[in-house]
């Protein structure tokens, strides 16, 4: 066990005291892990849209003060009672959703939606005792999706930690904790395009480009990128995208444009925007008889998906996915190995880098739409 096992650790964390206000670097106290928990030393983290959405607290009940962050890589510092498959020194990726390995979902080969550890954005405390492991000058600080990686040390449920190859560079593979795996898995695990097939990707942000990367790995011959921002098209070529469509350039529905380009429709499509119109277009643009559309983006709660039932009768298939259908503990280590084997390219997703002391710059980059992922170095 480490020399700090069982003790409270004082470290720096970026605390969100109010919605939409810059994070403040504070000295926080991090309690030891309780049963089935692990305490991690975070070495690298990055900012994701989900962090920004809940930091802005638009249309939701605010929960502050809070420590955000859920894409990260680190090392196990200590483990709580009952943890048997992790030990101090292990290299790990904390994940916003978990795998208890005991519930019906975890035991199913078709699902990754753990009953116990499924993402919960409203729970700012640990499952074990309903309390936070963070405090500042005696005041409890809320957790975020069970990870809170904008802290030099954090406490996470053991079921939300993926042990990975210690040779893998954590400053690169840390981006696999959320969005990149979501897009990649949506293509490889759910859409499953065959070699030589055609794939349309709706939305060319980081998740959409990860979906395109999956299509490239699968050997798709045509990867059509669809986005309202034509400035994204050039960068998308790095991820295997071969053709580009901006719906604003046409006076007809984009699904009709794609159908004309592909002699009736693409073999597969992956939607990564959250726009209900993009979702409908992604479904309607696939070929009848065998076309499969996969929805990744999260729509507004009041949105309705409207399409004619004949699309289903014509054997078009519509699917959805959560975290790319990856089980965090069982599957993420193999995704890391795809990178180690040079099958998966990750460096191109990291477009900016800042030291932890300048974490608010990462928010500025994302809010301005600059780049894909901003790496945050905790030791800089």
From TrEMBL:
InterPro entries: ADH-like_C, ADH-like_N, ADH_Zn_CS, GroES-like_sf, NAD(P)-bd_dom_sf. Its EC number is 1.1.1.1. This is alcohol dehydrogenase. Homodimer. GO terms for molecular function: alcohol dehydrogenase (NAD+) activity; S-(hydroxymethyl)glutathione dehydrogenase [NAD(P)+] activity; zinc ion binding. Residues 36-164 form the Alcohol dehydrogenase-like N-terminal domain. Keywords: Cytoplasm, Metal-binding, NAD, Oxidoreductase, Zinc. It comes from Salix purpurea. It is found in: Cytoplasm. SUPFAM superfamilies: GroES-like, NAD(P)-binding Rossmann-fold domains. The keyword Thylakoid does not apply. Residues 206-337 form the Alcohol dehydrogenase-like C-terminal domain. GO terms for cellular component: cytosol.
């Amino acid at each position: 066990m480490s020399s700090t096992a069982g003790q409270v650790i004082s470290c720096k964390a970026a605390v969100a005291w109010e919605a939409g206000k810059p994070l403040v670097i504070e000295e926080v106290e991090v309690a030891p892990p309780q049963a089935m928990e692990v305490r991690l030393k975070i070495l690298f983290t990055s900012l994701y849209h989900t962090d920004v959405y809940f930091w802005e607290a638009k249309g939701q009940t605010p929960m502050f003060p809070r420590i955000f962050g859920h894409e990260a890589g680190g090392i196990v510092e200590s483990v709580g009672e009952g943890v048997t498959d992790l030990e101090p020194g292990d290299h790990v990726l904390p994940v916003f959703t978990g795998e208890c390995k005991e519930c019906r979902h975890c035991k199913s080969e078709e699902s990754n939606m753990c009953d116990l550890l499924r993402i919960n954005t409203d729970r700012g405390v640990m499952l074990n005792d309903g309390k936070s492991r963070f405090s500042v000058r005696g005041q409890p600080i809320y957790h975020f999706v069970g990870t809170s990686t904008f802290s030099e040390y954090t406490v996470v449920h053991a079921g939300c930690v993926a042990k990975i190859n210690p040779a893998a560079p954590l400053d690169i593979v840390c981006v696999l904790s959320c969005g990149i795996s979501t897009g990649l898995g949506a293509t490889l695990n759910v859409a499953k395009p065959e070699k030589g097939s055609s794939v349309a990707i709706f939305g060319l942000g980081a998740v959409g480009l990860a979906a395109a990367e999956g299509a490239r790995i699968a050997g798709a011959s045509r990867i059509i990128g669809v986005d309202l921002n034509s400035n994204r098209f050039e960068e998308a070529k790095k991820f295997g995208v071969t053709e580009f469509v901006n719906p604003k350039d046409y006076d007809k529905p984009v699904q009709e444009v794609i159908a004309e380009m592909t002699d009736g429709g693409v073999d597969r499509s992956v939607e990564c925007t959250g726009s209900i119109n993009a979702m409908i277009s992604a479904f309607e643009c696939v070929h009848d008889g065998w076309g499969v559309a996969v929805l990744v983006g999260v729509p507004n709660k009041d949105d309705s998906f409207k399409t004619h039932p004949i699309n289903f009768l014509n054997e078009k298939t519509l699917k959805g996915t959560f975290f790319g259908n990856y089980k965090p503990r069982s599957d993420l280590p193999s995704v890391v190995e795809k990178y180690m084997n040079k099958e998966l390219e990750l460096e191109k997703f990291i477009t900016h880098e800042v030291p932890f002391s300048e974490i608010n710059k990462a928010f500025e980059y994302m809010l301005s739409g600059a780049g894909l992922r901003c790496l945050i170095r905790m030791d800089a």
